[in-house]
């Protein structure tokens, strides 16, 4: 099975340093606010991946950052994030849009293989009613639906579980591998409990799920508990992923044995001390910086998120490279300072 | 009906275009009817019409009518009959 999880950390850093340094120059030349930020930072060049200049992800809510002329803008993606109000704007040209779809495809095929599988979408079709403006949730579901066939929606238009549809699907396709996609809390609320109550056999399912753990943490469900409970209804092939609209096409995917997210060959993470910004050693939590070669039409190739995470190990897991977990969000107040500094510089 | 005509029909039906709409020059997302949602129905319609199972990469790469002809050709659909 072709995979995008192949490079050891050393090999990856060598490639990424070269590609991302070039990308940094590309954005410096083509995005004026970005050039001003680099000048204010005193950035010249990087000798390590960790040394590449990062932008706080929040900056995409404050500034129009793009490295393409207006007439080459093909798609503008927006996300309001979790705190509402401000909206991130991400500008894609045709090349960047096509590349992000291809790379997402390659990443997901690393666990699914090249064939599209019958697919359960743990969501409702109603959310796609307005075709012009999907929510981030709608866009996520649509993006993933490419990897499946014979799709069935697990929820009806009112958001109730359609048990008959699920039973029908499993009768027809449940004997062979099938794909399940949904947001983590929807899977928990609507698939796990319903499968348990109705004795549905999900043992041939491969679950890919995403979306913050916050709603589950409120119910005191940890990622470990989530996996354990799903295994009780036969669902043992489970892959969580972490990704954001500001680096669309790049997802960090949970390995087969669970508990860790892995970086595809074209991406990486650096965990930073929230006070000194220095890189944290393995095992020490900090802010997650996400790095990807995909953002070519906007300077989103090195982004400091507001999420806390920790690297568990390097080259010692299901796939090579760093393996890490997302621990939650940094309280809003603590992150504000750095973004304001950047706004002034820009 | 020739395979090419069947393909044109499948495009018109899936993308909700008029019966006489020209489709041979269509590009994904240049026509407002061919969005990601319609793409799903289109792929399903092509699979039904030509009894093929299209792989993920081909779904992703099917970015124009011409590309659909090429991809279906790989699956043994003959458009030169």
Number of domains of chain B: 1
Helix content of chain A: 25-40%
Highest-level CATH class of the largest domain in chain A: Alpha Beta
The share of residues in extended strands of chain B comes to: under 5%
Q: What is the CATH C level class of chain B, in words?
A: Mainly Alpha
* Content-based structural category of chain A: alpha/beta
What's the alpha carbon Rg of chain A, rounded to whole Å? 20 Å
Write the element-wise H/E pattern of chain A from the N-terminal end onward.
HHEHEEHEHEHEHEHHEEEEEEEH
Q: Taking Cα atoms only, what radius of gyration of chain B do you get, to the nearest Å?
A: 11 Å
The overall pLDDT average of chain B reads 92
Quaternary class: heterodimer
The unreliable regions of chain B are none
Question: What is CATH's topology name of chain B?
Answer: Non-ribosomal Peptide Synthetase Peptidyl Carrier Protein, Chain A
What's the total helix number of chain A? 10
Key features?
heterodimer, A: alpha/beta, Luciferase, domain 3, Rossmann fold, B: 81 residues, mainly alpha, Non-ribosomal Peptide Synthetase Peptidyl Carrier Protein, Chain A, globular, ACP-like_sf (chain B), Acyl carrier protein (chain B), PP-bd_ACP (chain B), Acyl-protein synthetase (chain A), ANL_N_sf (chain A)
Question: Please, could you describe this protein's structure?
Answer:
Chain B: It comes from Paractinoplanes aksuensis. Chain B: This is Acyl carrier protein. Chain B: Residues 5-65 form the Carrier domain. Chain A: Pfam families: LuxE (PF04443). Chain A: It comes from Paractinoplanes aksuensis. Chain A: Residues 3-344 form the Acyl-protein synthetase LuxE domain. The complex is a heterodimer of chains A (346) and B (81). In chain A, helix 1 (9-30) packs across helix 2. Chain A has 2 domains: 12-74 and 263-346, Luciferase, domain 3 (Roll); 93-242, 3-Layer(aba) Sandwich (Rossmann fold). Chain A is an alpha/beta fold and 346 residues long. Chain A has helices at 9-30, 32-41, 59-62, 94-112, 136-145, 163-173, 184-198, 214-218, 223-232, 332-345; strands at residues 55-56, 75-79, 88-92, 117-124, 148-155, 178-183, 205-210, 237-242, 252-254, 261-262, 267-272, 286-292, 302-314, 322-329. Chain A contains 10 helices and 14 strands. In chain A, the strands form 2 sheets. In chain A, strands 1, 4, 5, 6, 7, 8, 9, 10, 11, 12, 13 and 14 form a 12-stranded mixed sheet that branches. In chain A, strands 2-3 form a two-stranded antiparallel ribbon. The model of chain A is unreliable at 333-344 (pLDDT under 50). Chain B is 53% helix and 0% strand. In chain B, helix 1 packs antiparallel against helix 2 (36-50). The relative contact order of chain B is 0.20. The mean pLDDT of chain B is 92. Chain B has one domain: ACP-like (Non-ribosomal Peptide Synthetase Peptidyl Carrier Protein, Chain A, Orthogonal Bundle), CATH 1.10.1200.10. Chain B has 81 residues and is an all-alpha fold. Chain B has helices at residues 3-14, 36-50, 56-61, 65-74. At the A-B interface, helix 4, helix 5 and strand 5 of A face helix 2 and helix 3 of B.
